[in-house]
TrEMBL record:
Keywords from the UniProt entry: Membrane, Transmembrane, Transmembrane helix
Membrane-spanning intervals of the chain: 30-48, 54-72
Listed name of the protein: Uncharacterized protein
Length: 187
């Protein structure tokens, strides 16, 4: 099988700079930066507020959250064509194939064939559950009415990657399938 598929949808967005751009929300970054700095001050000087040990513990937690949000969560991908923000819908974990099955076995191929044939009606009717190797990543540009899909699989505990090309649903099909894909991911 072809191993040149992206590991996740963010890799796909990064690999196509002609279609997508990563924008940083400077206001969000500044707010989280200020919260992080205030937390670091409280870590260094916990006596500024009573119960210094409790303040220091909470400040450490808030500083870690603040650092994460400042450097990771303050950027989003946007479509250059529509200007719409790409948001994560969810990940659907198909009930079949079960864990421990051979990659590209009959259970895998059934799902892969539906995906590659763009048989969204049958694919969205598949049963889902938690903790399964075959997963469908779903992202959407709600403004441009575009859905981005990537079928991925765990090959081992540390090896998770795409097993088929990214598929795009847009136009009238967006309205037809968005609710079904959201529901598929919730089950």
């Amino acid at each position: 099988m072809n191993n040149n598929y992206p590991a996740n949808l963010y890799d796909y967005f990064r690999a196509n700079p002609q279609d997508f751009e990563l924008r940083t929300n400077m206001l969000k970054k500044a707010i989280w930066g200020i919260i992080t700095i205030a937390s670091i001050v409280l870590i260094i000087y916990p006596s500024l507020i009573q119960d210094g040990w409790l303040v220091r513990g909470l400040a450490i937690l808030i500083a870690l959250i603040g650092l994460f949000n400042t450097f990771v969560m303050s950027s989003n991908f946007y479509s250059k064509k529509t200007g719409g923000k790409i948001t994560g819908i969810s990940t659907a974990k198909f009930a079949n194939p079960p864990r421990g099955t051979e990659p590209y076995g009959p259970g895998d191929m059934r799902i892969i064939n539906m995906y590659e044939d763009e048989d969204w009606d049958n694919l969205t009717n598949e049963k889902t559950t938690h903790d399964r190797p075959m997963q469908l990543q779903i992202e959407a540009d709600k403004e441009g009415k575009v859905i981005y899909l990537l079928l991925c699989r765990y090959f081992s505990n540390a090896d998770f990657r795409g097993i088929a090309p990214v598929k795009i649903i847009s136009g009238a099909d967006y309205d037809k399938y968005i609710a079904r894909l959201i529901n598929l991911a919730k089950n």
